[in-house]
């Protein structure tokens, strides 16, 4: 269904068409699951038609509100300064907080390589000779 055709309908007619389309979509889904659906593109077209109808119905519901808002006169609000604000002293600037000293970067931890059995013996021999 084209958007032009939908726009010619009233909101109530669109709701009726929406209900019918949703029921048809449900039936098509069942047909698809059971393997009886031959035209799978019909699902896509029907989903988009439903979305199109919902969009236009929403536009029609919002349109009267927008027209009403445009026709109302909006009076500018007068700004009134209170005497208290005029008499109040300006706020003193807050002193900046002292910056913290930069943190020292921690050295990355490295795992010590496991010693082989030969290394402790070699170390012991070197200690014995010295």
Characterization of this structure:
This protein has 130 residues and is mostly helical. The protein has a domain at 3-71: Helix Hairpins. The protein is built from 5 helices and no strands. The protein has helices spanning 3-7, 11-34, 41-71, 83-87, 118-129. Helix 2 (11-34) packs antiparallel against helix 3. The radius of gyration is 39 Å and the shape is flat.
* Number of alpha- plus pi-helical segments: 5
- Sheet having the most strands: none
CATH class of one domain: Mainly Alpha
Helix fraction by DSSP (H/I, runs of at least 4): 55-70%
Overall geometric form: flat
On the 0-100 scale, what is the average pLDDT?
77
* Beta-strand segment tally: 0
What CATH architecture of one domain would you give?
A: Orthogonal Bundle
Low-confidence stretches: none
**In percent terms, what proportion of residues is strand?**
under 5%
- Overall structural class, as computed from helix and strand content, comes to mainly alpha
List key phrases describing it:
130 residues; mainly alpha; Helix Hairpins; 59% helix; 0% strand
Blueprint of the fold:
Layout: H1 3-7, H2 11-34, H3 41-71, H4 83-87, H5 118-129
Would you summarize the structure shown here?
This protein has 130 residues and is mainly alpha-helical. The chain contains five helices and no strands.
């Amino acid at each position: 269904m084209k958007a032009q055709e939908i726009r010619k309908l009233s909101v109530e007619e669109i709701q009726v068409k929406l209900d019918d389309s949703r029921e048809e979509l449900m039936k098509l889904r069942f047909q698809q699951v059971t393997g009886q659906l031959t035209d799978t593109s019909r699902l896509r077209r029907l989903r988009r038609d439903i979305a199109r109808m919902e969009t236009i119905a929403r536009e029609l519901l919002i349109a009267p509100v927008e027209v009403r808002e445009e026709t109302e006169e909006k009076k500018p609000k007068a700004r009134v300064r209170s005497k208290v604000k005029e008499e109040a002293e300006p706020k003193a600037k807050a002193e900046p907080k002292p910056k913290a000293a930069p943190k020292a970067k921690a050295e990355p931890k490295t795992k010590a390589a496991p010693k082989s059995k030969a290394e402790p013996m070699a170390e012991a021999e070197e200690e014995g000779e010295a």
